[in-house]
Amino acid sequence: MTVQDRPTAPGASQSLARSRPRYGERVIKVILLVAALVSVATTVGIIISLLGPTIGFFGDVGFGRFFGGTSWGPLFEPPSYGVWPLVSATLITTGIAILVAVPLGLMAAIYLSEYARPRVRKLFKPVLEVLAGVPTVVFGFFALSFITPLLRNVLPFEVEIFNALSAGLTVGFMIIPIVASLSEDAMSAVPNGLREGSFALGASRMITSLRVVVPAAFSGIVAAVILAISRGAGETMIVYIAGGGQPNFTFDVTVAMQTMAAFIAAAGSGDVPVGTVDYNTIFAVGSLLFLMTFAMNFVSARLVRKYREVYE
Amino acid sequence: MAVLTTPRSNVELASKGRPVKETAFRLALLASLAIALIFLVALLAYVFIEGSPRLDSRLWSNMPSIRDPEIAGAQSAITGTLWVISLTALFTIPTGIAAAIYLEEYANTSKWYNRVIELNIQNLAAIPSIVYGILGLGIIARTFGLGFSVITASLTLGLLVLPIVIIAAREAIRSVPPSIREGSLALGATQWQTISRQVLPASIPGIATGSILALSRAIGEAAPLLMLGAVSFIRFNPDGVFASYTVLPIQIFNWIAQSREGFHILASAAIVILLAILLLMNSVAIWLRNRYQRRW
User: Fold this and answer.
1) Is the separation of the CB atoms in A132 and A210 below 8 Å?
2) Residue contact A39–B120, C-beta within 8 A
3) Domain chopping of chain A, boundaries
4) Is B159–A42 a contact, with Cβ atoms under 8 angstroms apart?
5) A73-311 in CATH: which number?
6) B155: domain range?
7) 0.90 exceeded by the pTM?
8) What CATH number corresponds to the domain at position B88?
9) What is the ipTM for the molecules in this complex?
10) Nearest CA distance, B138 vs chain A (angstrom)
11) A108-125 pLDDT, tens per residue?
């Protein structure tokens, strides 16, 4: 660390030691540490802001009504607080998104990592970056005014204007870059020796990709998929704009649904008085969403670390 | 595959029927990239074609309205975005760089608190943006009493993109080789002199690129601001950090929520403006990366 900490050899000239203490250096170190602690304060702030109203909510409503009910209508009279419609809507839209993003993203990653020449890779990677940089409100607009009419024209069955299918598909395209670029990183990290060994045994490029590279990069790929799931589950604007605002407890993807994030956005954008049950409800749903994504991130981080141990 | 020692096996090595399956697989891989590409092109083409009738000066010279799409503009949203993003940059870039310097140059990773900071930054990067809205509402707007103002929005967005700045700045600092530091220290420079005169100048391109990408994320972010009072129709430009505000993505959202077709055209035109700003920022970031990237 600092010069001061180094042991002085016996008999060495003392002139090497610092002639006067440098307080400035220490002050700078403390300032930098404080900046690093801002991130910790953010997490603590999130937990504190969630905790109080959430405790208040469960004090008023109770765990049983929240986790036991299948009807969500906190603003109706009489209010109902069964969270399952929000949870199922979140799982369904995220599930549709994953069905789109995992095959497409993974295959794009295999192409970029195993097939594409460097020039082609240089061309396609920015395309994925641009897709990742499109604001979610723009995706939401596109889902509502382009994807939904398309589905309504193409599909043989009735599709409502606000529906989970269109929202889920668009979220899927939004998270393709996450799946693609993280799995591509994982596949590129597989040592070339494995590929060469496979080629030497007579395996084709397809067999090498599918049976050697993908299994070797598997934990990294799983981590990418989990991160994509948590991004999809927390996505707000697309599902709020295209998925509609009605909490329906159903598995019919052609009707409107309200996800947890969409409920938070819808209820939070009104001016709700502090301390009321309505206000606390937002935070209770927020806590559930936070815990779900936190758990997924935790698993993902563990997998990435495990994968790093193998190849570095 | 047959054993290679027999002469006849040479024939076996060129396996039959493989090309068809191989080609099909290759085509499937290309097709999935193409689908993602088509989606992006369709999105860009759609908003551009939809918005082109309203892509004119009314957009930035008129104020928002929900009565008449013909005279409605987005001036207060554009100035609001400028206010919010400038303040976000002022807050988040110095904090992010300072945190990155601490983690790369000072932190002793065997200490538990440094590992906590590190783990925490990774976790923060994956928390949904709407949860930051809850933080902004519960702590910054209510507990700190800053209300629904430009400063609340800036601080919330700043915290949201802080992990991006930190991660990018750490990578840039890490890529400066240790020999530079050792040379500086050997000449008698203190640690801070080494950092401020050698390490930071060498890592500025990487830090700038990461900061621009973080800010472009903040510009497009709408979800947390929905909860922080940006939804109301604001017909004046913000005149200070405590003023009410709206931003471009929220204004777009408001127009999408209107049922009349004219507002959807307006929303498309505003999206074109938003995407143009983001594309410009990303191009600058890529240019910076390519122009100043140093290989040691």
Assistant:
1) no
2) yes
3) 3-60, 73-311
4) yes
5) 1.10.3720.10
6) 74-292
7) no
8) 1.10.3720.10
9) 0.88
10) 5
11) 999 999 999 888 888 888
